[in-house]
Specification:
The structure holds 2 protein chains of 2 kinds. Chain A folds into 4 domains: about 120 residues, no CATH class; about 290 residues, Rossmann fold, CATH 3.40.50.300; about 90 residues, no CATH class; about 60 residues, no CATH class. Chain A contains 22 helices and 22 strands. In chain A, a hairpin with a 2-residue loop joins strand 7 and strand 8. In chain A, helix 19 crosses helix 20. The longest helix of chain A has 21 residues. Chain B has 2 domains: about 140 residues, no CATH class; about 140 residues, no CATH class. The chains are: A alpha/beta, B alpha+beta.
Chain lengths: ~650, ~325
């Protein structure tokens, strides 16, 4: 896509150097006419005058980082005198003062690279397509037998639109990896940028590097809920797609996962429109899945060796085994309900025996704390964590190439979000280490990174895990794409390890923090006023940040998706069960199912439904009937006697 | 510039003693230093007319010239001078910006050829520069030769300015004016042109005496005097008047005072106030940091700056240029 036959353009400027503003090997200054296409972020080419011996002179590429304008006015007071104190008259002066447009540019590349010398005082030209490729050292990975370029956007300046590519080896490993994108909410288009980049990766990931998939956590609204639906694109967007060599189409392979709501049958997602709901898989975990990541549930005060040891004891000695509690009871713990029975037996046994506060070397306070935390997760994340032990999970071991797996956690309790994130990422890591995930690389997209890996605050399990991914993930093919509003509020090692850094429109307060000291004031101003769809990119091959434009994602945007596919209201329990079953077998007769589950306990129905979902039998109705078992009449709750207050002084019940 | 300057090395090779002394450059074409006299053509006595700043023609060209000279060698005690003269006209259009309309520059080698040794003379003649022979009559003390050389460079600058000015004047558009820094009366073509003006900043010549002189030289800021015909000039006839750009009180008597020259024609009297009006508007922008900003029109300052930027750098006086040369 790089046009290597760009016609030679006339010079737009000339390098100047004075003792106070010399040209150096890393920076130079040049002037242009006042009417020029050069601006902050423009890439220019400096040509040294030929030496006349047939040898071409040195060529230097630079990116404009600062700009100055001044006139021959000796002091502002002289302007006041000339206008006789009237600002209106200053504009009426018959002659416009001589002015200069002086630009500062940072060197991107010198050819030849050795010996490294100050920039020659030569003529300045705006960069062509081929110049941009040279300046950004993209020639190293866009050519050759195994190119690894991933289009990220168009460098636009002075009517030029040059595709800019990232190196897959440095974006997705193994040389470097991870991408961090920051910018203010709503204007930085962080999610759109990641959607476009994922589409670009799926279309351009080199075949020789194997298979790739993406796991995206949707943590707010409907952002990622309609990636498989085509959005509306302008002609301008289509032209940009064509220029970048990316097909403007929605994601072809997307799989959605969402936990249930508290009722256990309606999915907790905004993708519940009848046309789309069947494509959302439930995400439900049982005790075994949760217990492995119980550390996530513990806050800093809870983290002690005793709680840790007790949780390990439960995992190793109790879970899925026949276990004697020491008070005459035998338990087989497979669900939260089983576990709670065990806890009650232990605590009750200790209290009844009155013999000690210790049970199998574990103090009762530790037991109570762990019980409290585990009960808490099953209450706060009722739709995600099933009491009954049945689970429905991502397709571990069967991840498909160029497929996006969207885990919708937008309406899940933060504790549950942490749990899902920790478990999914840990499982990805395990499978990637064993090389049995189904793909060689996985991009994990996390929004609101400052929440998961804050610069300060406690060392949570999630934060430690993010640090681990960012420092070691590239060797495994586990790549973190993370977004946040304020980069300064994210752990330094997490953002520092991101090989590629992307900036949308930034807040001026954020730009005033030390992390942005390397940027010139002009670049900061540009960042603070960056239009939607424009980004600043830092990439290992680019010696300076580069501004690019990217087209709107071809997939339907979240808020447009909600309008086109309005979420359905929660279905009554029976209807929701029918829908779940119809999704597995379109031949299911709704009325028959409703008859089957009528008067049955909802817990039993959910358990039976989970069994059907897991088994995926040919005859869904028959399997459900079998899973439900024989009908058992439910006892009506016994009325509790009411004792009237002794001295009814008022109607106030307290 | 290195190629052009090489002849200065060749004359040294030929036996001249090298030197490096740059006298102060000329301040421009000055008024003639003579007691002249004048004939009033507008009123009986010199009167003062108020002028308000106003708009001028859409297109105006401004002309100025510069000269540089330096003694680059001595053949015996005979100084050999290298000179540089240049002139440019810069046109101001509707966008109020100045752009070069025409320019000319000349490199000079000035010396009394008859007094030079054959080798030095040959080197000078082969220099590629325009050689100006001072003539044997200038011989004598080196100081006299330097004065003669300066006058020769000065005359050459006037010549170049006149060439450029006449060429520009010949191509002026129907509504376009030409403003020359200095005397208009040097050239018949300029003196007779209906839309050419000379702006003189120095006031060595005296045209009035007594009360008329006082009226002329004490006119307040934003006024002009009556139009008069300067007398005693050897060149071409023009009309003239004084124009005060800035109040002089608290400064010098000549602060902000210009003398304008225009065609000797009845129409000039009729348009004197209008022309003064737009010249008064040329006070802004202020031509600082030039010390003559009170009389120097900014466009003229701009032309001068342009010419200076293109002049050979080695003809500029620098702080270290007269330090003794060491072996290294």
């Amino acid at each position: 896509m790089i046009d290597r036959a760009s016609p030679a353009s006339p010079p737009v400027g000339r390098v100047v150097a004075t003792e106070l503003k010399p040209a150096t090997p890393y920076q130079f200054h040049f002037w242009t006419a006042q009417e020029t296409t050069v601006g902050i972020g423009a890439i220019v080419r400096v040509e040294e005058q030929s030496k006349g011996n047939g040898e071409g002179g040195r060529v230097v590429y630079g990116v404009v980082t600062d700009a100055f304008a001044y006139s021959d006015l000796a002091t502002p007071l002289h302007d006041v005198i000339g206008a006789e104190g009237d600002p209106a008259r200053a504009a009426e002066a018959p002659t416009v003062r001589q002015e200069i447009r002086l630009w500062t540019a940072a060197v991107l590349r010198q050819i030849p690279e050795e010996p490294l010398q100050p920039v020659p005082l030569g003529r300045v030209l705006v960069a062509s397509d081929a110049d941009v490729a040279q300046a950004l050292r993209m020639d190293a990975y866009l050519t050759g037998a195994a190119p690894t370029g991933i289009p990220i956007g168009l460098y636009t300046s002075g009517g030029l639109e040059s595709p800019v590519y990232l190196d897959a080896d440095f974006l997705l490993g193994p040389e470097a990896a991870h991408l961090n994108i920051s910018g203010v909410s709503g204007l930085a288009t962080k999610t759109s940028a990641v959607e476009f980049l994922l589409a670009s990766i799926f279309q351009h990931f080199p075949v020789h590097k194997g298979k790739i998939a993406a796991v995206c956590f949707n943590v707010k609204g409907p952002d990622l809920c309609f990636l498989d639906q085509a959005g509306t694109l302008s002609d301008e967007d289509r032209r940009r797609y064509e220029r970048l060599g990316v097909a403007p189409r929605a994601f072809e392979r997307v799989r959605y996962y969402a936990p249930f709501k508290a009722d256990g049958v309606n999915l907790n997602t905004l993708r519940t429109h009848p046309d789309l709901a069947p494509t959302v898989e439930p995400l439900v975990w049982g005790l075994a899945e949760v217990l492995d990541y119980a550390e996530v549930l513990l806050n800093r005060d809870d983290i002690d060796a005793k709680a840790d040891a007790f949780i390990d004891f439960l995992s190793d000695r109790v879970l899925n085994r026949d276990f004697e509690d020491g008070f005459g009871g035998t338990h087989r713990v497979q669900s939260f309900a089983d576990l709670d029975r065990l806890f009650r037996a232990i605590i009750g046994g200790l209290e009844d025996a009155g013999r000690s506060d210790m049970w199998r070397t574990h103090h009762i306070a530790t037991i109570r704390k762990v019980r409290n935390r585990l009960s808490n997760i099953s209450t706060r994340c009722k739709g995600l964590v099933a009491d009954d032990g049945q689970s429905s999970d991502l397709p571990w071991g069967a991840f498909a190439d160029r497929t996006a797996y969207i885990v919708d956690l937008a309406n899940v309790d933060p504790l549950g979000q942490d749990l899902v994130f920790a478990r999914v990422v840990s499982k990805l890591r395990e499978h990637l280490e064993r090389r049995d995930l189904g793909v060689e690389a996985v991009v994990v997209f996390v929004d609101e990174l400052n929440k998961y890996a804050p610069a300060d605050g406690p060392d949570t399990y999630v934060k430690k895990m993010l640090l681990d991914i960012s420092e070691r993930g590239r060797y495994l093919g586990l790549v973190l794409f993370a977004a946040e509003q304020f980069r300064s509020q994210v752990h330094r090692r997490v953002v520092g390890n991101a090989g590629t850094q992307v900036f949308g429109r930034m807040d001026m307060d954020e730009l005033a923090t030390p992390g942005y000291q390397v940027l010139s004031p002009a670049t900061k101003i540009k960042l603070a006023t960056l239009p939607i769809g424009e980004l600043m990119i830092r990439h290992p091959h680019f010696t300076q940040p580069i501004f690019v434009r990217f087209p709107r994602p071809a997939a339907l945007r979240g808020r447009d998706g909600v309008e086109r596919f309005p979420p359905a209201a929660d279905l009554p329990f029976a209807e929701a069960v029918v829908r779940q079953l119809v999704r597995l077998d379109r031949g299911v007769r709704p009325n028959l199912v409703k008859d089957l589950i009528a008067d049955r306990d909802e817990v039993d129905v959910r358990r039976a439904l989970a069994a059907v979902r897991r088994a995926r039998p040919d005859d869904v109705t028959a399997y459900l009937r079998k899973a439900l078992g024989s009908r058992v009449a439910v006892d009506a709750p016994r009325a509790r006697p009411v004792v009237p207050p002794l001295n009814p002084i008022s109607e106030e019940p307290y | 510039m290195r190629g052009k300057a090489a002849w200065t090395e060749r004359i040294v090779d030929a036996g001249a003693v090298p030197a490096a002394f740059v006298p102060a450059a000329s301040g421009g074409r000055s008024d003639v230093e003579e007691i002249a006299g004048a004939e009033l053509v507008e009123e009986e006595r010199v009167a003062v007319h108020a002028v308000a700043p106003g708009g001028g023609p859409a297109t105006v060209s401004f002309l100025d010239g510069i000269q540089r000279w330096a003694v680059v060698g001595y053949d015996g005690v005979v100084p050999i001078v290298r000179g540089y003269v240049a002139a440019a006209a810069r046109r101001r259009g509707a966008d109020r910006r100045l752009r070069v309309a025409r320019e000319a520059a000349r490199e000079l080698a000035v010396a009394p050829l008859a007094l030079l040794r054959a080798g030095v003379r040959r080197a000078l003649e082969e220099s590629g520069a325009a050689v100006i022979d001072l003539g044997a009559e200038a011989a004598g003390q080196p100081g006299r030769l330097l004065v003669a050389a300066q006058q020769a460079v000065n005359a050459e600058r006037v010549r170049v300015e006149t060439e450029v000015a006449e060429a520009v004047a010949a191509r002026l558009g129907a509504e376009e004016w030409l403003v020359v820094d200095g005397l208009l009366s040097e050239s018949a073509k300029l003196a007779g042109h209906p839309r050419a003006l000379g702006v003189i900043k120095s006031h060595s010549a005296q045209y009035f005496e007594g009360a008329d002189l006082q009226t002329a030289l004490t006119c307040p800021g934003g006024t002009r005097t009556s139009v008069f015909r300067p007398r005693g000039r050897a060149r071409h006839e023009v009309y003239s008047w004084y124009l005060r750009l800035w109040p002089w009180e608290g400064n010098d008597l000549l602060f902000g005072l210009l003398r304008i020259e225009a065609r000797a024609h009845a129409g000039t009297v009729a348009t004197a106030t209008g022309v003064s009006s737009w010249l008064l508007a040329e006070r802004a922008p202020l031509a600082t940091p030039d010390a003559r900003f009170d009389r120097l029109l900014y466009p003229i300052h701009d032309v001068e700056t342009y010419l200076r930027s293109r002049a050979p750098r080695d003809l500029l006086l620098t702080a270290g240029s007269r330090l003794p040369k060491t072996g290294t």
